[in-house]
Amino acid sequence: MTNAMGGTAHERSGKALHFAALLGGNMALAVGPWFVRHADSGPVSAGFWRLLLAVPLLFLLARLNREKVAGYSRATWLAIAGAGVFFGLDIASWHIGIEMTRMANATLFGNAGSLVVIAVGLYALHRAPRAGEWLAFALAIGGSAILLGRSLEIGRSTLIGDLFCIAAGLLYAGYILLLQKPRATMGSWSLVAWSSVAGVPVMLAVALYLGEPVWPSTWWPLLSLALLGQVIGQGLLIYAMRHFTSLVFGLALLTQPAIAVAVGWLAYGETLVMADFLGMAMVAAGLALARSTQN
User: Fold this and answer.
1) Dist CA 46 CA 92 (whole Å)
2) To the nearest whole number, what is the mean pLDDT of the chain?
3) In this predicted structure, which of 20-24, 66-70, 143-147, 235-239 has the lowest mean pLDDT?
4) Does residue 232 lie within any of the structural domains?
């Protein structure tokens, strides 16, 4: 049975599930910096453990969901390998940046890749953004700026860390774009599993090159990072990827600053002012508007 709101009840339920997965993945990723700062290994080593510890569980989830884990084409393997390298360098760069700049800077600049994802998506469609999409984009960017504006600090002391976080955002965009074609034929868990495998040696090589301590004495931050950041966060995002345009997917990444502010309030008692609620509302409105343009 259909109605004027568009589609059957089953279709609407499916769309809601996909959208919940998209937001849930960003929520899981937004808390990652706190676990990195609690880890007593080096920051890049924390990223190495994030990938390595997640791999067995990712393959288990792929098998439980009866996903194909082998027998892909050469082009698919190359795309996965390239995505894994991009992802490994992304995490390495971001984790270094987290240690060298403020949390707000790391959150904002680490999501710079969302702009690239949106731009490439629109280029692939061979058109400029429509009026509603421009408004959605302005609301999400403006809301993120308001959320982080009070704690954002641009200066000589944070410059190197900021640059590492910007580089991480751009590398993450490359990771997402490289996975677009494999995602059309692969299950989400198997795709995250194999891209994680490809990223592990990259992370370890960078950690050893930097002379970081690799073996931790406290495991809970790394286990939490692997479960939330890699299994839940990346798993949900890759699952949702095929169901949304690049505009919606890119703008959804900008929900992470709002989530980071909310986590700071809930976990650390940080004070929220009216501007914070306004910023959250603007990001939510921008994402909702972008989603409505896809229907």
Assistant:
1) 9
2) 80
3) 143-147
4) yes
State pLDDT tens for residues 171-223: 988 888 888 888 878 888 998 999 999 999 999 999 999 899 999 999 999 99
What digits encode the pLDDT tens for the residues 155-168? 666 778 888 888 98
The number of folded domains in the chain is 1
Residue 50 lies in a domain: yes
Could you tell me if residue 82 is inside a domain? yes
Q: Cα separations (Å) of 170 from 28, 89, 144?
A: 20, 10, 18
195 close to 86: Cβ distance less than 8 angstroms: no
- Please provide the distance, in angstroms rounded to a whole number, between the alpha carbons at the two ends of the chain: 18
Instruction: Judge whether 178 and 122 are in contact, CB under 8 Å.
Output: no
Structure tokens belonging to residue 231: 């299994």
Range of the domain at 202: 9-127+153-242
Contact indicator for 24, 236 with CB cutoff of 8 Å? yes
CB atoms within 10 A of CB 14: 13
- Position 58 scores a pLDDT of 94
In a domain, 251, yes or no: no
More confident residue, 51 or 139: 51
pLDDT at 235 over 50: yes
Q: Work out whether the CA dihedral 177, 142, 29, 105 comes out positive or negative.
A: positive
> Full-prediction pTM beyond 0.85?
no
